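Per your request, structure below.
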C-alpha cells in the first residue's frame, strides 16, 4: 500500500506540473464580494474592448507577455491614430484627395469607406491580466494562433469561398452572414466565446437565483445561463447556444453546446462544438474571462483564450440593427443591377462583414 500511495502521489505531482498554464486559472489573492444570494458578485456593465488582437503576431512566437515598453508603444500608436482620424475633414476636398481613400489596411475603415472614426470604439489599451500585458487573446496553442483545421473543415471552407467568388452570397438575404442579417452580432461578440470587435463591446451581467443573464450591446442579444441545469436535447440549435453554469468558489463556469454553425468563428463550427467559459472577478474593477473552444470536427486541437472585462461607464443602449440596415437592400439591389447588365458583382469584404 505504501508503494501504491507513493506512486499515485508522484503521478498527481507530475500531472500538476504538466498542466497547461491556462488550466490553473488566474493567480490572485482578491476575493470577490458576494451578493444577497451568496454568489460571487459579477453584476454590472462591463467592456472587453482592447487593442490586443485575437491572434498573436508571429514576431512574438510563443511569448505572450509584452514588455512595458512594447505595451506603451502599442497604446501610444493607437492614441496617435485616433487623433489623426479625429482631425476635421476639409469639405472642399474631393473623394480621391481624402486620407485613407483606399479604405486603409483593414479594407473598411477610412474617410471614404464603411466606417469612419466616429463609428468605431475598439478600445485603447492592451489586455492586462494581473499586470501582464498580453500580445494576443489566444493563449493556447502556444503560438497564439488558431489550431490547424481538419481536412473536412478545410474542404467546407473552400466550398464557401468558391460560392462567395461566384456571386452566390448575393442571391438573397439568407445567403448573407448572420451579422449582416441582424440575427447576432458579428465577430462572435455575443459569443460564446464573447470577443471584442470594432465597436459596442459592452455587456451587462444580471444575476438571479436560477440564471445569470448577459445582455450583449451588439444586436441587443441576451444570453441566458441556467444555473445547475441540464442541456436541452442535442437536436435543438440556438443562437448563442444552450448555456448551463455553476459556481466553483469565486468562479462562474459556463458550458455551452447547441450553437448554430452560422455564428462560428472563422470558417464556422460543427454540431459537436463546445465552449467552456470561466468568469472570475480578480479585482474590484476587473473580471478575468477565459474560454476554451473544443470542436474536433473543425479544429485539430482546442482553442483557449483569455481577456479582461473592465467597468464600462454608463448604461447599455438599444442596438437597432434592422432599422438601420440599409446596406442589405443596397447590396442585393446592386447585384440584381449587375445581373441585368451581364457583369460580375462583388463589393468585397466577403461573407463575414456586417451590413449596417
Amino acid at each position: 500500500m505504501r508503494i501504491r500511495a507513493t506512486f499515485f502521489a508522484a503521478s498527481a505531482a507530475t500531472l500538476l506540473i504538466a498542466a497547461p498554464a491556462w488550466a490553473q486559472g488566474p493567480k490572485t489573492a482578491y476575493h470577490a464580494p458576494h451578493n444577497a444570494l451568496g454568489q460571487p458578485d459579477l453584476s454590472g456593465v462591463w467592456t472587453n474592448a482592447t487593442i490586443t488582437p485575437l491572434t498573436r503576431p508571429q514576431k512574438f512566437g510563443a511569448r505572450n507577455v509584452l514588455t512595458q515598453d512594447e505595451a506603451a508603444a502599442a497604446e501610444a500608436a493607437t492614441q496617435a491614430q485616433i487623433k489623426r482620424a479625429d482631425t476635421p475633414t476639409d469639405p472642399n476636398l474631393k473623394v480621391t484627395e481624402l486620407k485613407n481613400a483606399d479604405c486603409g489596411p483593414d479594407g473598411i475603415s477610412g474617410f471614404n469607406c464603411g466606417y469612419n472614426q466616429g463609428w468605431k470604439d475598439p478600445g485603447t489599451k492592451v489586455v492586462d491580466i494581473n499586470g501582464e500585458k498580453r500580445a494576443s487573446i489566444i493563449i493556447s496553442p502556444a503560438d497564439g494562433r488558431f489550431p490547424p483545421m481538419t481536412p473536412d473543415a478545410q474542404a467546407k471552407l473552400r466550398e464557401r469561398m468558391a460560392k462567395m467568388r461566384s456571386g452566390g452570397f448575393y442571391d438573397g438575404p439568407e445567403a448573407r452572414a448572420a451579422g449582416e442579417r441582424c440575427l447576432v452580432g458579428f465577430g462572435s461578440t455575443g459569443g460564446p466565446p464573447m470577443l471584442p470587435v470594432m465597436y459596442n463591446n459592452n455587456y451587462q451581467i444580471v444575476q438571479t437565483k436560477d440564471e445569470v443573464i448577459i445582455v450583449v450591446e451588439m444586436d441587443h442579444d441576451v444570453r441566458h445561463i441556467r444555473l445547475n441545469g441540464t442541456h436541452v436535447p442535442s437536436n435543438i440549435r440556438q443562437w448563442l447556444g444552450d448555456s448551463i453554469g455553476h459556481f466553483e468558489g469565486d468562479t462562474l463556469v459556463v458550458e455551452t453546446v447547441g450553437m448554430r454553425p452560422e455564428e462560428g468563428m472563422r470558417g464556422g463550427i460543427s454540431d459537436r462544438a463546445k465552449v467552456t467559459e470561466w468568469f472570475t472577478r480578480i479585482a474590484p474593477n476587473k473580471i478575468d474571462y477565459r474560454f476554451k473552444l473544443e470542436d474536433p470536427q473543425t479544429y485539430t486541437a482546442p482553442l483557449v483564450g483569455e481577456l479582461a472585462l473592465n467597468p464600462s461607464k454608463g448604461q447599455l443602449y438599444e442596438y437597432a440593427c434592422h432599422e438601420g440596415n440599409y446596406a442589405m437592400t443596397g447590396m442585393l439591389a446592386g447585384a440584381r443591377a449587375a445581373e441585368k447588365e451581364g457583369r460580375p458583382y462583388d463589393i468585397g469584404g466577403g461573407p463575414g462583414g456586417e451590413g449596417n
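The CA atoms of residues 72 and 256 lie 36 Å apart.

Regards,
D.
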